[in-house]
Amino acid sequence: MKFEEKEPIEESSDDVVLEPEVTHDVVDEETKPMLDYENIKSSQDIEVPPLLIDQVIGHEESIETIKKAAKQRRNILLIGDPGVGKSMLAKGMAQILPHESLQDILIYPNVEDNNHPIIRTVPAGEGKKIVKATKGSARGHEERKTLITTLAIGGILIIGFFYGRILESIIAAALILLISIQIKPKNTTMSPKLLVNNEENRFAPFMDATGAHAGALLGDVRHDPYQSGGLGTPAHERVEAGMIHKANRGVLYIDEIGTMSMKTQQELLSAMQEKKYSITGQSENSSGAMVRSQAVPCDFVLVASGNIQVLEGMHIAMRSRIRGYGYEVFMKDYMEDTTENREKLVQFVAQEVKNDGRIPHFAPDALDEIIMEAKRRSGKQNALTLRLRELGGLVRSSGDVAIEKGADLVKAEHVLEAKKFSRTLEQQIADRSIIQRKEYSMVNAEGGRVGLVNGLAVIGDRSGIVSPIAAEAAPAQSKNGGQIIATGKLGEIASESVQNVSALIKKYTNKNLSDYDIHVQFIQTYDGVEGDSASVSIATAVISAVEEIPIDQTVALTGSLNVRGDVMPIGGATAKIEAAAESGMKKVLIPKSNLKDVMIEKKYEDMIEIIPTETLSDVLENILISGSKKDQLIEKMKSIGSKVAEKVPQSTINNPTTN
């Protein structure tokens, strides 16, 4: 199979305003085939690798590390965002572990100490035969005992009836029956229990112990309600293997390992070090510490995973052991947009269709839509997302739509329709919020307002929303005037960005801020505000309030400001632009450095004008309503900016002197 990548469209960097016509270059690129599919009629023609490790997309460096770790049986810590393939890598590692003869684990009663059962290991498949043979022998003994008991009882009853001693014979028969019940053949009490059965395993075992409690992870002893009178279950029959024992000579996978209790992590660390671990009561319903087996083999490879925050909850000795006897791997959430990686995405679609087994394959135009959605979800220029679990959800939703329509192949229109049904909760919340804010005039995309700006934010990963920000400059009531007071559940970074804005306001306004207390309100931010992407919006609202210049309410904006007034890049540019369009905005201001990251859907192209900005003066020039006050402010800001540039002569920059 061979693909050919389309040549990239050159973009002009001199444009200041991105008119709808300018976006046509991007649109044309989107409508052309992403790849040259040659004789590929659908994803059914794409070969799917048989091993899981070869089905992992975009993590070549991580795969190489996993292969090295598998060869030497090293532990692994995988850190990355949800859905990038951590569990798939762990399963793939189990398939490529060096071939070792797997073992069955049997547990026998201990004649000398019933509460200390004996452990025995045998080659895989032999354990079941041993148990079957032992139970067959015990069954023969039981049948013979039953026959003898029946004959004895029958003989006594006949003799009693013959001699007229019926009552005595019945009592004697009952006594014999009771004795027979109490007597258990030695073969029955000595029959082993099969703790771990590897008879049908072709590869090394893989155990997913994510969220497992201590008993399931480390093994447990079941409670016995009949502990006397000969009715009790033998101790070895009540012992249950833990996942660490079932993963012997295989892989034990634990996601979000930092959420596991420290005590359990300590016990797990002991099992890793000793490669064997005795089973005793772990849960409230177990037999406690009365029963403790011999040490059970648990020579597993640990693959732990989670996001970066999981490190805070990891036992320091656990992480030290992984670092000392294994590898730590940080997994990417995107890959470069190249021909090779687009091919891998097509392979991913074929894998998802095959693994699902209930949806049709994808036609080339549908594959193009999946690739385009991967570009959009990456949030970066020339990148494709690696959060493939979520993208797989879109693949399955598209297949469901195609089945509903009675189509043999998934087409592009099915993918586009599926995007409406596969929206995340955050997207649904954002859509509903936009409707509600329109109904209650929280966002009014017309006219001009002093101190009120339409900021943009992101809910979740990629759901944009319009977040109004209001500012008011009130006369100071104390000697400690000049404060900026922000409300709306601001996080630490957001609070710091508000304070940084004050330096710009002092620099660019003619007002003595010590005479004012400036109040900034993030309207209806029930879930709080974090990040500094609203700093441009805050500065605009405050300057409008101080200078009493109205803001154009048909314009929304986003961007981060540094203390020198430069507009810095932000995340979620595409989602924010689409949210502005949905809210009825006519223009949106974004950082110029984010311009190449924009991949809005076609329906928004004619709805909104995208204007890139580099400085705060660019922002104010495009959002403040024209008038003498605006002209004076912009002229002052530009003159300040030019003076700053003149402080260091260009010749000095080009020809620095060296000592």
UniProtKB/TrEMBL annotation:
GO biological process, one term: proteolysis
KW Coiled coil (keyword) present: no
Location of the Lon proteolytic domain: 447-626
Start-end of Acidic residues biased regions: 7-18
InterPro entries from the UniProt entry: AAA+_ATPase (IPR003593), Lon_arc (IPR004663), Lon_proteolytic (IPR008269), Lon_Prtase (IPR027065), LonB_AAA-LID (IPR046843), Mg_chelatse_chII-like_cat_dom (IPR000523), P-loop_NTPase (IPR027417), Ribosomal_Su5_D2-typ_SF (IPR020568)
GO cellular component: plasma membrane
Enzyme Commission no: 3.4.21.-
Gene3D superfamilies recorded: 1.10.8.60, 3.30.230.10, P-loop containing nucleotide triphosphate hydrolases (3.40.50.300)
Keywords tagged on the record: ATP-binding, Cell membrane, Hydrolase, Membrane, Nucleotide-binding, Protease, Serine protease, Transmembrane, Transmembrane helix
Pfam family, one: LonB_AAA-LID
Membrane topology: Multi-pass membrane protein
Enzyme class: hydrolase
Cell location: Cell membrane
Residue numbers spanned by region Disordered: 1-21
Record SMART domains: AAA
Positions of the catalytic residues: 533, 576
Molecular function GO terms recorded: ATP binding; ATP-dependent peptidase activity; serine-type endopeptidase activity
Record-linked CDD domains: AAA (cd00009)
Subunit and partners: Homohexamer. Organized in a ring with a central cavity.
Biological role: ATP-dependent serine protease that mediates the selective degradation of mutant and abnormal proteins as well as certain short-lived regulatory proteins. Degrades polypeptides processively.
Stated family: Belongs to the peptidase S16 family. Archaeal LonB subfamily.
Protein name per Swiss-Prot or TrEMBL: Archaeal Lon protease
Species assigned in the record: Methanobrevibacter millerae
